[in-house]
């Protein structure tokens, strides 16, 4: 080496450690094998990007960069390349490095030269940590690699070169490591090694030798043989000489390097700054060397020196020991790793051994751990280490020790002294606090480069810290600059050292959140970006600041004499159309205030940087940024210096952090403690100070986390400051917004009216009458958690346009009311169980058990996980692969997985690693299976024992019955097992607490069952992860799990089409043409079709789903869970890394939709269960492609960027993507049309179609299609083609109506096409249509009617009247569907599907009791009514006829005592439900006649049948519970037919006409049928299961809650058959009741919202429909008589004859007389004048009341009567509304609109029957 280093031209550059290493590795290698892992990924990314730019290495080629499926793969590939004589390298860290281990042994064993570059990182143990320490590198120290450690960014660059030279010289492979993050991510200004210098250093002869040694058929040799005991050892030992030479080779390489570069290094370095002889030596390696050096330098310690270790392997003991001065008596060895249970950590052991082997005795060696997981290591800690070593008595030295934490449990930690200001005054130190997405970090990275590059001698350093949240969390940038002195300070800026401290988010200084000012030095500059700066008046501005910023902060600013500047950067940015992007502004402020560069130069540099950065984003954005910059520079007004008033010095510290106050309010004791001790300090960046004991006290040992902590954070992660605002009048309660919300921040609540009044802000706690039968009487509220909403806009996008019921509004308006209303709503009872969760709407009433995660705003992964928890959350186990879903799903201390507040149950979630997740899940599953089998064994044993000797004890016998039932249903995939367990648990506890019975074996068995109680529920095993896991690293395991049919597990793959968590590198899910990291040149290969691969197994349930199609997603989740065997759902997940333009993930919903509609993402399901039923298992859910794939590609940066960079390549790849998409679609189409030998659906004669918003119409259509032998599967209307699928065909349509009469979204395009079409349909086109809707809506069934009208207009023949499925009907829409289907089958000339009835026999046995006392029956019935139905037994006070006794209609006034509190608490407008009973005489007669086997006194033991347990006589059962005299259903007859003894009986029972005929003739009852077909004699349990239970009947209450009784107005129902008049069951009972009789009844919330006494009201009622109006009227009379102000009240009442049916005549007349000023009575009696029938509606139309009170005033309309009333009444309203000018057309059309609005705005309420 002859040339001097000064001969080379060198360049300096501001770079980080990763870049520095990559820069050398790229140029000195042929190939690189890569896989992403933090913090080493940027090395791979850099080399890939350079290769994409065709940059050349030293050998004149581009580096060949190959990404593998895992690090194990990269290691294998590296090995192969080396064997083939390539110069090859790789980059990795942590778990990645562990996966290299087997190959490291191979590579070292074969003496293959290579350098593996590692950014050293912690290993996942009790938790994952992406941060730096030496745990990974220390674990590979035995593999046989030489190991070099770099201490700084410059060294990382230099050691990369030295290692490369040394490996080639020695043939020993090298591992070169730097400290993860601390060095890999620190930006520093370094001097680069030029190509010329590298060329001089590289031993080309050795490269040649390496190449010559390669495996080649030209000179073949064999590698990797198997050897026996005789030779293996000798061959292993034969490489010793190579290792012995390494030390010398490294020394030489370093010397050569020094000669060429001027930078001198040694394997071990000595440092001492005292003047005498040191007695203490500190031994360390990595970045800590610089810290120790700085501390020693600052302290000028006479006692302590340091020996720094660069060459860790091979360890040269002699060289090392020689550096220890003879004066040293004590050594402290610092290790950045922990080996639990060892004698000491690796470096410590090496030091001790060296002293021993080199004969240096008498030195005390203490070992200490520091900096684990990037814990900051500072000079102050070094000081503590020295102090420890200088303790007088050697026995007092803490060994082993830790430094940097407070260990108050094992007391290993050293106490810390005051911070040392080791950085000289020459350097400027700056701290910036930013918000995740505000661009602060990016801007700072730019700034550091500008400053560093500005002048040759300027030195810079920057280090960045981030919140664990994926975005919108905090960021802290630490930056140092110096005019000439090197900045070797690998630690954060310390307290009181900052020259410039900036807070870019005002919420950080609000309510004492972060202590930012602590960094500021005296007289330093503090900049705050705040809205206060926009307050014009200086005095008011100061007041605003005082109101906003916590006083502790203001006091500190005053005491530090700070220069305090403010600016409203947010306002400025918005003004320039760049909302939220404050980076340019804040950077400019920094240059203005810090004077690190002359301002003019700084601005020029900033402008050129803006041009560079924003050129990709378009001219417009670039110009806006430049204009903005000019404003900040030129407008002195925008940046204001605050004149700090003296009073701030006296401000009190008293203010408690908002979060602390918030934490104190947490109800749950455990959670409060956790948040106090840990959650809150961590959130306020004070986690470093938490002592170990706090973790133990909170039971966090072993990485355990308590559930549901994310909800306590309330971090307001919303840069847009906008949240959705609900417009209830437009809301259809579809819950689509709730489904899509990635953050679970918008939720529907089912509330009672009473609860609404208790809301903290009832005026803003808006509600709607809840739709759907199951929610009758309840209210629907939609609430947003204002402090958890991220403002992502997804809910607004998802809200159907009919018009939209959500829009974004300013958050300020809701910060108090919204927050408090939300808190209130969260405390409301859980009511999800009231609604079936199998529909989209129903699923969203279930409380999500995954909420407020740290995912990016609008993340496409989270909604899927949220849905999983809503469906299966309380019985769900999750194995989650490392990836975004573990970071947003499990970042300590925020746990978004939570529990149901009533049961305390929720998802059990765990993460093992990235690579092993499928296996991890399989382990969970098999353990569950095994443990459950054990439980089943115990239970079977126990039940068997009980059969042999039946229990004498009542509790025990109940328990046995339940266990029996559990055994039967234990494999049912539902919550039933859990519910059964809930019944069992108290019995178990009581039985176990009783003194052990005589049989201790039995109690042992019981005890064993109890100890396995966790296995009672049927658990649902989920294995979840991203595409990187499923397609790449975990594919082997995933494949293995799916390959076995017995593995009943479900896999969810959230496919973002890249490794999102590590910053967006390609996976095999990335499509061709995408330019993502590791594929910057554009991915060449098409996306792997994972779903299709798994379909080939044929037993795997496979689905490909996308978010916007909520119904399909939901269906897939259900089917996957229900499938007996493995499943996989591949879910398209829009991700921030895809770069959706222009709105990013604010467009998440449309992004998903576009992907599907362009065919880019296919929707399908492959369900093996269908194969079993002989059907095509493959269903293509996305059929019709409406958008162009290229249009989709044009929306995303991942595709567009390539086009900008390399249009030719992009064009070719885009063509390829389009071809791939079309090809895949064709293939899927073929599968749909004929998978294997399943029939082609075009054979189908009937086409079944649907338009469905919430999935109900789709479900009904699919059921119909399944039942109809001549049809294929059902399709959404938008997926079909009118000509192909409708024209000339027979179609059956199921259409729901949403919004205010809107078409569901999957039918809109179809409808538009239908409307546009002018060409008639072929004459043979026939159709049937079934509409679904809610009759309480004005536009009931509108969508179905629109389609019907249009089809008719185009000439199609309608085969039947439209069927009506009314959600508001008593039995929901099913009844209407049933009736319609009865007519459909004959019309289609298809025999109705033969339903094989499934008889659910009740769990009952004959009792051995001969007879029961009536009180005993009563006791059980009480259990039934009270326990099961929450009914009470009320006494009749009076039962009065309201008409003449001989009159043919029987109106009655019934009064009941309100003796029970349950009856007292009803509200105006409620109804009373009465449980009727059968006539006991008829029952006893029937039982006597029906069967000789049982009679009325027979006693049966019910085992949880009808919800009861215990013995009951058949008489009681048939009188009170079973509807023996009700009308038989078709279903009942079918069931009975299965018992028929003769074919003839069977035929009669199955004849559809039989029921009709018999009903017409005799009014046949269930009892009649049973008597007629006595030979079909079902066993009693079956019979009890076949007869439906008696249903209660509801009657509106006519009295007010103030009255002492409950009054009902009842018309006794009768009906006729040929045999005579018949009574309905309840009426028959009611008419016979006498005072003092009792009835079972319960309050049923009314369907109409009552008016307040002040509301103007118009009521229209006919017959007994007067009842609710009477209640409203009586309430108003009461109010008026109490002196309250009351509004006008008009009552229109109609009946047939005035003489006999003028109900409440005298009372009404009296009111009309007494209260004429506000009460207006109108009565109509239709039959009084046979020539002119006058109805209620005629009176309404001919009077002014409706106009006055409903049009001119904001009044309310109430309508109660039969179904004939509403329509004519609406016309009457129009008439009244335009009464003064009935002929004026414009008045008429205004009136029509006003009536419509009345209904649309919920001002009209009706109850019809
Ligand atoms: C063995 C190993 N290699 C690499 C990593 C680093 N790593 C963590 S998550 C991840 C990417 C996950 O991507 P994907 O599975 O697609 O999930 P996403 O983040 O997109 O949700 C990588 C590479 C790791 N944790 N372990
Ligand atoms: S804006 Fe986004 S986070 Fe907020 S409620 Fe809507 S979907 Fe949820
Ligand atoms: S209509 Fe809009 S606001 Fe109402 S539930 Fe549906 S999506 Fe939500
Ligand atoms: S998947 Fe994408 S959007 Fe979601 S948290 Fe990860 S990076 Fe953010």
TrEMBL record:
Q: What is this protein called?
A: pyruvate dehydrogenase (NADP(+))
The record places domain Flavodoxin-like at 1246-1385
Q: Which NCBIfam families match?
A: pyruv_ox_red (TIGR02176)
InterPro entries reported for this sequence: 4Fe4S_Fe-S-bd (IPR017896), 4Fe4S_Fe_S_CS (IPR017900), CysJ-like_FAD-binding (IPR003097), FAD-bd_FR_type (IPR017927), Flavdoxin-like (IPR001094), Flavodoxin/NO_synth (IPR008254), Flavoprot_Pyr_Nucl_cyt_Rdtase (IPR001709), Flavoprotein-like_sf (IPR029039)
Per the database record, which ranges form the FAD-binding FR-type domain? 1429-1651
What Enzyme Commission number(s) does the record list for this chain? Answer: 1.2.1.51
Q: Which SMART domains match?
A: EKR (SM00890)
What does the sequence similarity comment in the record state about its family?
In the N-terminal section; belongs to the pyruvate:ferredoxin/flavodoxin oxidoreductase family.
Q: Which cofactor does it need?
A: FMN; FAD
This protein's UniProt keywords? 4Fe-4S, Electron transport, FAD, Flavoprotein, FMN, Iron, Iron-sulfur, Metal-binding, NADP, Oxidoreductase, Pyruvate, Transport
Q: Which GO terms describe its molecular function?
A: 4 iron, 4 sulfur cluster binding; FMN binding; iron ion binding; pyruvate dehydrogenase (NADP+) activity
Q: Does the keyword Electron transport apply?
A: yes
The record's section on PANTHER family has:
PYRUVATE-FLAVODOXIN OXIDOREDUCTASE-RELATED
What Pfam families does the database record attribute to this sequence?
EKR, FAD_binding_1, Fer4_10, Flavodoxin_1, NAD_binding_1, POR, POR_N
Q: What class of enzyme is it?
A: oxidoreductase
Q: Name one GO biological process term.
A: electron transport chain
Iron-sulfur: is it a keyword of this entry?
yes
In terms of Gene3D superfamilies, this protein maps to: 3.30.70.20, 3.40.50.360, 3.40.50.920, 3.40.50.970, NADPH-cytochrome p450 Reductase, Chain A, domain 3 (1.20.990.10), Nucleotide-binding domain of ferredoxin-NADP reductase (FNR) module (3.40.50.80), Pyruvate-ferredoxin oxidoreductase, PFOR, domain III (3.40.920.10), Translation factors (2.40.30.10)
**Domain named 4Fe-4S ferredoxin-type: which ranges?**
722-751, 780-811
* Catalytic reaction annotation: pyruvate + NADP(+) + CoA = acetyl-CoA + CO2 + NADPH
